[in-house]
Amino acid sequence: MITNIAQGIQAFTSNAFLVGGERTVLVDTGANFDAVSALRDRIDDLELELEAVVLTHTHPDHVGNLEAVKTAFDVDVWGYDTGVDGIDHAISDDETIQLGDHEYVALHTPGHKDDHLCFYSPDADVLFAGDLVFQNGSFGRTDLPEGDRATLVESIDRVLERIDSDLQELHTGHGPSVTNEPYGHVELAAQMARQM
């Protein structure tokens, strides 16, 4: 069960995905909205207990609510770089972690930001892409600090090599999730990133 607690929020925020199941995890916390209240409502409705926060990367729109969520739910935070405030545990490239009922492989995918991770579950056919790629071939900005277009292209290519062509769900850092042939959206992003 995957639900976006930031859906419908008008403020500048990332998506924040609650992944329910055996290990209930929040992927990114979003920013500029009351994530604690939104999360508490959703968790109570679904009778879940939040066990961890996992970060795709640490841009402010993805971690603005981090401290509030961490304090309210007394959970640890996993991310790529424990040198960043608020991250308790490092996730290494190619490490396997559990989100909900499935195991996901963490893929280090810099280019948008140095600490960027994507999470892919071959069993669930689900990819959490953060700000690497979006719907309709869009891709992460490379004009911010730590951004680099050539590195981003390499990261998208790496993800394409790992994911299966019958990917079922693509959950992105912004905009809607893609459930209609999401693999093609990732392929298109690889093409578009090379052209600009």
From TrEMBL:
SUPFAM superfamilies with a match to the protein in the record: Metallo-hydrolase/oxidoreductase
Cofactor (UniProt): Zn(2+)
Domain of life: Archaea
Family matches, as InterPro entries: MBL_Glyoxalase_II, Metallo-B-lactamas, RibonucZ/Hydroxyglut_hydro
Residues annotated as domain Metallo-beta-lactamase: 13-174
GO molecular function: hydrolase activity; metal ion binding
SMART domains in the cross-refs: Lactamase_B
Pfam assignment, any one: Lactamase_B
This protein's UniProt keywords: Hydrolase, Metal-binding, Zinc
Keyword Iron: no
Name under which the protein is recorded: MBL fold metallo-hydrolase
